[in-house]
């Protein structure tokens, strides 16, 4: 059962499957109803499942996440859409102090099967606050699972896995890749497909490991292709919390080099954690320090500068070169 | 200041005067018998005793902190006794009286303030959520829960309602106001029960609002009502009406229980730094327990034996609280890693096992004579 | 739905009917002469032209996005022309008409939507803050600014006032409500000007509130008023009164300008997915410009030559907007590092110089034949 | 002019000096007025400077930071108190999307001389949300300066430097060390004392560098003392954004080893960034990977577990041992 889907449509199909499978699954957010979301990711769900299950909420992110927590306590499985990355922050308190901690503080008596879908990342020529990459804030917050997808296949399955999880899942959607298309095997079963927490070797190689996720996977693959001097292994880490270190360290022990690329700002970005951890685990195998290729430590700039701000093919290749310079 | 406000404003619902006289209110008829009033009296006395024991235990170093409900017993008992079993309450951190009514054992509350748990009870079993410390957060949880009730079709005569507790200070928080709005727009079956105890730590009410709190509701499109928070009967009647409104599909109500925090904010606080003793005296005259006792006495509905019996019961409860508190075992170190996630999590598992090894290394080191 | 609400509710302040008849309102007397009305007409027409040019420029790929003010010209011009020079306005992202009145050149606005700047103007110079995109945030900035005015002693006859713009959707946001409360408690000289254009992207007003928006204010203890947002004279009169109240120390007001978003939410949006064309027709009849034209014509206060002259001026403005937009240079790559910090910052300096070297390496590589 | 002061009283004295120096300096927060703050850090300021300059705000952190931004636009220099670390989160939107970015987005036309004082860290036997270490969220946010103090001398001077800065400064106060006392030379001048951004070698050593900050400095010094087998150099990093890397790398190049200790959770904590960066700069000098000693990746536990949760003397020593095991 293969279908050619974009990432956006694959998430849509995955959400539909989740809603069909479990009547407790709800959609909540701004404009997720009739409009189907500003990126149309919930397109058609309002029509088919009604206003009780696809809820156009008031314009208040804290309210959305806070009421989703209450719904989860009542046995529902809300899938919350935060319209853009930059609009997550009003919900920071409910996410970090409540959602992430509820299970632990209730000693397991309460579960929080809430998915927070966030279109993230830049490169779409948008105005301020529409191009942020806030994943490090989530990764640093114990109690959350953090995943992101880079292709339609993962989009379709991982959103369903996220909905099935009894933990709060931050589901990061690479907005500038929403329209990337590929074959999705919708006939497989959830139990069979790769688990949400596992990293994936997107391209095997022998000389250097290039780790990325979400929107940067395409760039990473292009870089691996472009660098004809080296054989580059590309890992799509997929889950930022927890990170699948065995897959990564196995690769790095083979290649001896690791480059991590992401759109989040450098300082304290996910690359920092991965570099620190991998260095600890692969100390005697590394022929160079872990090289990070990331956005600069400035606010996301006006869009006419974003091509320089975001790590692009050249910056990633430069990072690979730096790794080989040792 | 709040005093004057109360006198100027006729909208304060009261059924039992400080002198112990029972009155009637056309909008809030209360059908209650002597036995029920005696039961309320018992609740009031016992939770006050639990509270004062907890304060002592904190002084003795048995608790890290305690937030006393002194003065607010009627607001809590009145509203909580209006709840049906299936109803759900979302407390703040001072609702020991509500917890009592919901069948939470005092030791569970003490466990949290002792630092042994973060609230050990099962919210579902008791219809009583965990204490919420980040001000205002729980108002949204309550509203979401109420929206879940709507989706369950559990609205109607036998419907389920939700009550969310918070203080006067909490009305300033964005979350509380967002909750008002979500509840209003969705017509959710939730009662917002604000215990206006006139203070948010050291800040008097005028730092939080320029108008009486109950009026906030109208701005969001639902009714607000101010009740004498030291009058357990009025709190019961008003809460019952509001809860019934909610459960039958008539949407939210904001109840402002006008009361007073007789003690410190918490055992860490020193209210003499910021408020006059005079205020205390004024409110002492409106004590929530005394007026019930007066009513029972004046109407011959309880004799000395009854009051003695309750006091003895209070002594036993106090004794039990002390014993239970002192005997509470500390959690095991590895509990740090418990229930962080529901699904298996390799990362936590690894940290747990590393830490277990680390701890074990001391034991073996200890056996060998140590570092 | 919003239509009916408007008709049912007599509290909508209107001075100029859609038919062009001037009326009087006892609470909002407006002393205005023909020349001033002609000037308002000019403003309305010119900002509509700037707006429609911007929409076209976006279609042509010259702008990344544009948020059209179509239909809201009167609300913006009326309120902004009520401001004094020293007053400060805090816009959302659609206040191109307000920007116009504050002397911001259209190209500055275009620069932001083109992605060349994040708003290139000096807020202090113009008494007009940057556009704020995170809904509700600026309401608090406005309130804080107003609290600063109080501390400057700049309250009184010659006092300074602040106006904060936001939409109907924004009234749901915690920040907006916190701003209402901070303003109320501090009696801050700020006017909250809500353009209720009936829609927040695809969500109709009933998803944001159950009661008319202006009523929210009373819940926080200050006055709220609903004005016909398509009536530039009423918006002027009501805003002026509210601003004067603020500047003389009488505290905040919430003005709800009842209007309609005639276009898409932004150029990215497709409103046919969620709203009926019928609504548009209804509101077209209430066009904010047409009624001023009618008034001027019907009372012989402007002749054909005047209207032609304004249209010609609009053509010139449009031409200028197009030229200026197309000729706007892209920022230099190293501008990424500009003004991140005020004080020297070693970290930014290092990233900047490394990136400069990196960029230079391409140039030399290019000179040598490249990678 | 030496005075014996606790950290708490030193900050208080520094705030007083700042208010005396500049009438535009204001205090804002919950209970900062008559009460003088729950930790008494603003004690006496309300009495001496009045309600216009020491503002008891409504209970709303977003409101506090949001109005502080507006005050700063009007030319004031607000010093905001967030009552406890865990109550920062309602202000996350105003802090991350507004305060941190205002200068950049206005192309320098607006400055944000706002100080956000936050008592942080655990170890005081408190209930939930009163013991958090949120510094990594701030460190990852471009546009903020992030500093913390470990002794009365720094407390007195750095708070004044923070107030003088035209940038938003997150000023983290080690609450469990508020009562630590030491001599403060209040007679020096602001221009002379060590700048806010500089790290400080708190104890010289030759075999291993132990980096910490805030509440962990005392523990780090104790560890250095306790480890009689090695000569340990302790660095008080003081500023988490920007980090003074020259001081750190100079040390690490000498010692060949680095242990970073903090109360923030491990994953994505400040130690990750410091480890990644130092490894890159000192790759050939490191005899072991950078070892991190941090809180576990769980929500802060109930207080009876905090002695196990927080890195203590033994855990720090264990970290040092791990560094020497390579
Ligand atoms: C978001 C948040 N900010 C600050 C605090 C610290 N704090 C705890 S209780 C309190 C005052 C609460 O006052 P009120 O809401 O009136 O409730 P009361 O304590 O009087 O019952 C404050 C400021 C907190 N718990 N949460
Ligand atoms: C905090 C936040 N959440 C979501 C958005 C996305 N968004 C942009 S405009 C908008 C609707 C705003 O509606 P309203 O306040 O009525 O203003 P209008 O656009 O109608 O002028 C939304 C949801 C945002 N900008 N900020
Ligand atoms: Mg209170
Ligand atoms: Mg709108």
UniProtKB/TrEMBL annotation, chains A, D:
Its EC number is 1.2.4.1. Its cofactor is thiamine diphosphate. It holds the Pfam family Transket_pyr. One of its GO terms (molecular function) is pyruvate dehydrogenase (acetyl-transferring) activity. InterPro entries: THDP-binding, Transketo_C/PFOR_II, Transketolase-like_Pyr-bd, Transketolase_C. Keywords: Oxidoreductase, Pyruvate, Thiamine pyrophosphate. It is an enzyme of class 1 (oxidoreductase). It comes from the Bacteria. The keyword Oxidoreductase applies. Residues 5-180 form the Transketolase-like pyrimidine-binding domain. This is Pyruvate dehydrogenase E1 component beta subunit. It comes from Nocardiopsis terrae. The lineage of its organism: Bacteria, Bacillati, Actinomycetota, Actinomycetes, Streptosporangiales.
TrEMBL record, chains B, C:
Keywords: Oxidoreductase, Pyruvate, Thiamine pyrophosphate. GO terms for molecular function: pyruvate dehydrogenase (acetyl-transferring) activity. It is an enzyme of class 1 (oxidoreductase). Its cofactor is thiamine diphosphate. Gene3D superfamilies: 3.40.50.970. The keyword Ion transport does not apply. Coiled coil: none annotated. Its EC number is 1.2.4.1. Residues 44-316 form the Dehydrogenase E1 component domain. Pfam families: E1_dh (PF00676). This is Pyruvate dehydrogenase E1 component alpha subunit. It comes from Nocardiopsis terrae.
């Amino acid at each position: 059962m293969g279908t050619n889907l974009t990432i956006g449509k694959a998430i849509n199909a995955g959400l539909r499957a989740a809603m069909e499978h479990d009547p407790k699954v709800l959609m909540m957010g701004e404009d997720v109803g009739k409009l189907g979301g500003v990126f149309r990711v919930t397109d058609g769900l309002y029509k088919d499942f009604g206003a009780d299950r696809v809820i156009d909420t008031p314009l208040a992110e804290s309210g959305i996440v806070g009421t989703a927590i209450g719904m989860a306590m009542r046995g529902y499985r809300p899938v919350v859409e935060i319209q853009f990355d930059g609009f997550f922050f009003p919900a920071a308190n409910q996410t970090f102090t409540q959602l992430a901690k509820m299970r632990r503080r209730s000693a397991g008596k309460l579960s929080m099967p809430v998915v927070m879908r966030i279109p993230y990342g830049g490169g779409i020529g948008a105005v301020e606050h529409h191009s942020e990459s806030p994943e490090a804030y989530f990764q640093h917050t114990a109690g959350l699972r953090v995943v992101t997808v880079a292709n339609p296949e993962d989009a379709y399955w991982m959103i369903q896995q996220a909905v099935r999880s009894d933990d709060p899942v931050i589901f990061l959607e690479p907005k500038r890749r929403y329209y990337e298309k590929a074959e999705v095997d919708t006939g497989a079963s959830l139990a069979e497909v790769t688990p949400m927490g596992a990293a994936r070797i997107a391209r095997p190689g022998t000389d250097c490991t290039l780790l990325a996720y979400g929107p940067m996977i395409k760039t990473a693959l292009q870089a691996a292709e472009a660098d004809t001097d080296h054989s580059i292994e590309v890992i799509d880490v997929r889950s930022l919390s927890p990170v699948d270190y065995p897959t990564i360290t196995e690769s790095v022990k083979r290649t001896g080099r690791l480059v991590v690329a992401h759109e989040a700002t450098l300082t304290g970005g996910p690359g920092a954690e991965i570099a620190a951890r991998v260095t600890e685990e692969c100390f005697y195998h590394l022929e160079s320090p872990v090289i990070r290729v990331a956005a600069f430590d400035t606010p996301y700039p006006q869009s006419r500068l974003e091509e320089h701000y975001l790590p692009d093919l050249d910056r990633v290749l430069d990072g690979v070169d730096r790794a080989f310079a040792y | 200041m709040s005093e004057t406000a109360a006198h100027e404003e006729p909208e304060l619902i009261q059924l039992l005067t400080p002198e112990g006289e029972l009155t009637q209110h056309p909008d809030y008829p209360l059908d209650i018998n002597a036995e029920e009033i005696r039961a309320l009296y018992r609740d009031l006395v016992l939770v006050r005793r639990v509270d004062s024991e907890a304060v002592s235990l904190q002084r003795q170093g048995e608790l890290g902190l305690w937030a006393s409900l002194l003065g607010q017993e009627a607001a809590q008992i009145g509203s909580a006794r209006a709840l049906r079993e299936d109803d759900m309450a979302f407390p703040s951190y001072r609702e020991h009286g509500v917890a009592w009514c919901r069948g939470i054992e005092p030791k569970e509350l003490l466990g949290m303030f002792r630092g042994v748990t973060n609230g050990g009870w099962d919210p579902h079993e008791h219809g009583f959520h965990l204490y919420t410390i980040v001000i205002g957060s729980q108002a949204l949880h309550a509203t979401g829960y109420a929206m879940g009730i709507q989706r369950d079709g559990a609205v109607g005569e036998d419907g389920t309602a939700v009550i969310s507790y918070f203080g006067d200070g909490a009305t300033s928080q964005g979350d509380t106001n967002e909750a008002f709005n979500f509840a209003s727009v969705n017509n959710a079956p939730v009662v917002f029960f604000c215990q206006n105890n006139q203070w948010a730590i050291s800040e008097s009410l005028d730092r939080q609002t320029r108008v009486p709190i109950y009026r906030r509701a109208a701005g969001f499109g639902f009714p607000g009502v101010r009740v004498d928070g030291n009058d357990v009967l009025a709190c019961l009647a008003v809460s019952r009406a509001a809860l019934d409104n909610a459960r039958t599909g008539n949407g939210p109500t904001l109840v402002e229980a006008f009361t007073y925090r007789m003690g410190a904010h918490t055992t860490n606080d020193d209210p003499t730094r910021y408020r006059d003793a005079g205020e205390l005296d004024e409110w002492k005259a409106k004590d929530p327990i005394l007026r019930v006792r007066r009513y029972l006495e004046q109407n011959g509905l309880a004799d000395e034996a009854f009051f003695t019996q309750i006091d003895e019961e209070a002594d036993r409860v106090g004794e039990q609280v002390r014993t239970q508190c002192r005997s509470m075992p500390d959690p095991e170190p590895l509990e740090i890693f418990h229930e962080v996630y529901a699904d298996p999590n390799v990362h936590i598992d690894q940290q747990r096992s590393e830490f277990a090894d680390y701890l074990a290394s001391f034991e073996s080191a200890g056996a060998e004579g140590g570092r």
